[in-house]
């Protein structure tokens, strides 16, 4: 399928822009996805590590609380069975109640003797009958070690709790234990559940046995074990690290960090798809930008190509209409001239039988004069045609100038795009510098700034490539303009030569007229009759020859117009135009008038043969001369070849237009 000129401009450019933007968007999406996934993995790992450290610090702070409180003299006195000891227990109860009230994360604080009996507590009435001697944490504390118990569900609140026990000493002798029941829900609420991990992410804690002691689903607390899951067993084996697993059809990324000393582990998990949400958003933004840019570029190219094609189409339509009219007129003129030539030939044949050699010479002289007169008339018409051609060439030169101006405007637009890309590159560099100043917190922004810089550099390279293509197009347009200027100069030279030929034909006509007047004095009657006959024959012959050439020129012009229309509109739209433009002659002309004339003979003007004919008559005034056959036009002598004026053999220069 043959494409139109507009589509030849539009399709390659749109395809090139589409491929460039699609490639850029894909690379951007893949790079952003990889970078964001790595960044998110590092962030959740940092969150897990920080949460584990905070839990460790918080437990140590509670241990320090119990260690400091157990060193107070009041509690040592309250553990004694003396009168002073029993009196101090009331004050100890009040003090422990105040501490539990001030420190909300303590469910209760209990003071026990060495045999495990509770003598004072922040909730003494609830725990006075409980003996802690068989509890592991009590046994370790009575030996002099501050230790932490396993997590258990509180019978009072139903929340996970653990006990921190510290020995109470008096003169370096352990006389009892101060045990604080710590509500783990307080830490979970303030430190774990407050973490913002997107829509699906959450944090949790499991102990050294794998039991969940903190989880968003409260039904899991101390009832679900991480060892029940394949990924949980891997986590227990690894201790600390990060894994990716699939649960209920959803892929999740988990980072987990073990707390030193306790054996507890803090885990932070989030859906992998959620990690890539920002990358998907970048992909959609790139897609929207690509579609908008392709639409804008396509619209600009479509507008420019349509303007150029419309201008060339108008010129082609004008040329086609003119060629059709000239072809019809030439066909009619050829038919009439042929009929007139045949009648004149018959009349001249009857006169030849009775005419003397003087009459024949007079007929030839008058024929030369009339031929010169007709040649002069035709030369004037030819001057008009040449003037019209010069006008058309000027219009074509103007159109080429407009095309060049449009191409230069497009080049300026590409330069603007390149400047925008340069400014974007500078902004990306500034963003990278600011990200570097921000340190670790700006690492993610530095990656994005680097990618924006890469995009700006690629946009600049694409703009430079497009500018080079447009500069090539502008250069070709300038070359075409120069070619049109040279053609216009050649047409001017043809017009000048035509004027000179007209002057020579005028001089020949004047000389022939003087000879005719001399011969008229010898034999006026025969010369008058012969003059009329030869004049009619000469007019018919020249009219037929001129009509033949005009018809051939019109046919050739129609071929050129058809090729131009095919280039502008494409083959599918040009075939109906070529068929509609073909003329239908009213009558079949003779073989001489209807033969097709190629481009090499379009500019041959046969009446120029009158000049050597006049010399022949002057040299052979006493000889018998046969009349010229009207059906056989004289051959042009000394006529310049049309290829020397307009080179038609350089078709390769126009194949890529």
Automatic annotation (TrEMBL):
<dbReference type="GO" id="GO:0006935">
    <property type="term" value="P:chemotaxis"/>
</dbReference>
<keyword id="KW-0472">Membrane</keyword>
<comment type="similarity">
    <text>Belongs to the methyl-accepting chemotaxis (MCP) protein family.</text>
</comment>
<dbReference type="GO" id="GO:0005886">
    <property type="term" value="C:plasma membrane"/>
</dbReference>
<keyword id="KW-0812">Transmembrane</keyword>
<dbReference type="InterPro" id="IPR051310">
    <property type="entry name" value="MCP_chemotaxis"/>
</dbReference>
<dbReference type="InterPro" id="IPR033479">
    <property type="entry name" value="dCache_1"/>
</dbReference>
<feature type="domain" description="Methyl-accepting transducer">
    <location>
        <begin position="322"/>
        <end position="551"/>
    </location>
</feature>
<feature type="region of interest" description="Disordered">
    <location>
        <begin position="576"/>
        <end position="657"/>
    </location>
</feature>
<dbReference type="GO" id="GO:0004888">
    <property type="term" value="F:transmembrane signaling receptor activity"/>
</dbReference>
<feature type="transmembrane region" description="Helical">
    <location>
        <begin position="9"/>
        <end position="32"/>
    </location>
</feature>
<feature type="compositionally biased region" description="Low complexity">
    <location>
        <begin position="609"/>
        <end position="623"/>
    </location>
</feature>
<keyword id="KW-0807">Transducer</keyword>
<feature type="compositionally biased region" description="Acidic residues">
    <location>
        <begin position="646"/>
        <end position="657"/>
    </location>
</feature>
<keyword id="KW-1133">Transmembrane helix</keyword>
<keyword id="KW-1003">Cell membrane</keyword>
<dbReference type="Pfam" id="PF00015">
    <property type="entry name" value="MCPsignal"/>
</dbReference>
<feature type="transmembrane region" description="Helical">
    <location>
        <begin position="284"/>
        <end position="305"/>
    </location>
</feature>
<dbReference type="GO" id="GO:0007165">
    <property type="term" value="P:signal transduction"/>
</dbReference>
<dbReference type="InterPro" id="IPR029151">
    <property type="entry name" value="Sensor-like_sf"/>
</dbReference>
<feature type="compositionally biased region" description="Low complexity">
    <location>
        <begin position="576"/>
        <end position="596"/>
    </location>
</feature>
<dbReference type="Pfam" id="PF02743">
    <property type="entry name" value="dCache_1"/>
</dbReference>
<dbReference type="InterPro" id="IPR004089">
    <property type="entry name" value="MCPsignal_dom"/>
</dbReference>
<protein>
    <submittedName>
        <fullName>Methyl-accepting chemotaxis sensory transducer with Cache sensor</fullName>
    </submittedName>
</protein>
<keyword id="KW-0488">Methylation</keyword>
């Amino acid at each position: 399928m043959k494409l139109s000129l507009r589509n030849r401009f539009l399709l390659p450019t749109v395809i090139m822009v589409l491929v460039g933007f699609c490639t850029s968007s894909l690379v951007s999406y893949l790079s952003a996805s990889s970078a964001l996934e790595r960044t998110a993995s590092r962030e959740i790992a940092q969150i897990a590590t920080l949460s584990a450290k905070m839990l460790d610090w918080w437990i140590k702070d509670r241990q320090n609380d119990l260690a400091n409180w157990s060193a107070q003299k009041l509690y040592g006195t309250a553990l004694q069975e003396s009168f002073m000891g029993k009196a101090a227990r009331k004050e100890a109860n009040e003090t422990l109640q105040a501490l539990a009230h001030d420190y909300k994360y303590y469910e209760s604080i209990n003071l026990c003797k060495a045999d495990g009996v509770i003598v004072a507590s922040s909730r003494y009435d609830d725990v006075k009958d409980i003996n802690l001697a068989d509890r592991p944490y009590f046994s370790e504390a009575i030996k002099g070690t501050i230790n932490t118990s396993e997590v258990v569900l509180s019978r009072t609140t139903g929340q996970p709790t653990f006990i921190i026990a510290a020995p109470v000493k008096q003169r370096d002798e352990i006389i009892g234990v101060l045990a604080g029941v710590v509500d783990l829900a307080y830490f979970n609420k303030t430190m774990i559940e407050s973490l913002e991990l997107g829509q699906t992410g959450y944090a949790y804690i499991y102990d050294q046995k794998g039991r969940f002691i903190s989880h968003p689903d409260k039904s899991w607390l101390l009832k679900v074990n991480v060892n029940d899951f394949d990924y949980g067993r891997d986590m227990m084996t690894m201790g600390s690290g990060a894994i990716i697993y699939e649960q209920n059809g959803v892929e999740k990324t988990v980072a987990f960090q073990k707390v030193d000393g306790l054996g507890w582990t803090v885990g932070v998990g989030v859906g992998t798809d959620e990690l890539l949400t920002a990358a998907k958003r970048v992909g959609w933004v790139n897609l929207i930008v690509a579609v908008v840019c392709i639409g804008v570029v396509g619209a600009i190219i479509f507008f420019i190509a349509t303007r150029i094609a419309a201008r060339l189409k108008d010129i082609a339509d004008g040329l086609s209409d003119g060629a059709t009219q000239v072809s019809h007129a030439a066909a009619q003129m050829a038919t009439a001239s042929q009929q007139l030539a045949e009648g004149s030939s018959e009349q001249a044949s009857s006169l030849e039988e009775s005419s003397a050699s003087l009459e024949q010479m007079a007929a030839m002289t008058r024929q030369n004069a009339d031929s010169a007169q007709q040649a002069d008339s035709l030369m004037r018409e030819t001057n008009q045609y040449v003037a019209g051609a010069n006008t058309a060439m000027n219009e074509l030169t103007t159109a080429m100038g407009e095309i060049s101006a449009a191409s230069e405007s497009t080049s300026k637009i590409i330069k603007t795009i390149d400047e925008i890309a340069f400014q974007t590159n500078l902004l990306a560099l500034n963003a990278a510098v600011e990200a570097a100043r921000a340190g670790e917190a700006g690492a993610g922004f530095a990656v994005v700034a680097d990618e924006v810089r890469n995009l700006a550099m690629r946009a600049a390279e694409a703009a430079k490539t497009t500018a080079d293509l447009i500069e090539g197009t502008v250069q070709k347009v300038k070359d075409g303009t120069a070619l049109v200027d040279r053609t216009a100069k050649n047409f001017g030279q043809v017009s000048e030569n035509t004027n000179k030929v007209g002057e020579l034909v005028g001089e020949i006509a004047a000389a022939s007229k003087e000879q005719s007047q001399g011969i008229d004095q010898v034999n006026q009657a025969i010369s008058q009759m012969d003059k009329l006959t030869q004049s009619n024959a000469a007019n018919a012959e020249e009219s037929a020859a001129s009509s033949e050439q005009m018809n051939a020129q019109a046919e050739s012009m129609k071929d050129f117009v058809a090729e131009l229309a095919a280039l502008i509109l494409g083959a599918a739209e040009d075939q109906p135009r070529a068929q509609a433009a073909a003329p239908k002659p009213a009558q079949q002309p003779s073989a001489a008038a209807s033969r097709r004339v190629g481009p090499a003979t379009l500019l041959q003007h046969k009446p120029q043969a009158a000049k050597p004919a006049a010399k022949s008559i002057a040299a052979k005034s006493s000889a018998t001369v046969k009349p010229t056959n009207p059906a056989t036009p004289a051959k042009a002598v000394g006529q310049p070849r049309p290829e020397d004026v307009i080179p038609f053999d350089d078709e390769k220069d126009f194949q890529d237009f």
